[in-house]
Amino acid sequence: MRAWENRPDTIVSDEPFYASYLARTGREHPGREQVLAAQPQDWRDVVANLQRPLPAGCEIHYQKHMTHHINDTIDLGWLAGVRSCFLVRQPRNMLASLLKVLPDADVDDTGLPQQRRLFDYVRQALDPAPPVIHSADVLRDPAGLMLALCRKLGVPFSDRMLSWPAGPRDSDGIWAPYWYDAVERSTGFAPYRPAEPEIPRDKWPVLEQCEELYAGMAASRLQE
For the chain, how many helices (H) and strands (E)? Predict the structure, then answer.
């Protein structure tokens, strides 16, 4: 999201379905009441907002979605009006990070079942080869992967996507104080550092499910 927002031709939307997800599921997340008050809770209103005309001078609307916010009660027809790109991360690293904030997280909290459903929908209905980028590949070669992604999406690459000023953004969700500490300190993509974090034994079944869901998408990862 930082990379895209640093482009002068782009606006971003940060997790627009978050309040809808919280209202629908009743899940307790940090800042729950603030999120519910800040965003539409009906997914139809969210879609209508996303389909509004772009402001003058903007040609790209980058929408950052957490896939677990988009469950099977939401009509996916609006995806025909956008180009979808799927970001994946090695499940062990993803789960270890999530458990720091949501220690009781289950597989649905990871978003992987929902991401796989969206991925399969897009491949079957809209684009047989949607771009999939792996977080490790981006960190290994930010310029190469962002260039490849822009080419795949049919938009010009900008080197402004590779670095940005530190600090918060007006476009950050109201939940930023709970989740974006590292993001706000960042000024670019961090160097890749391989890691094998420990996963609590009681979460091993969750990790196993995540690995299975991840494998099919990672096999389609975008190469430079």
Answer: 12, 4
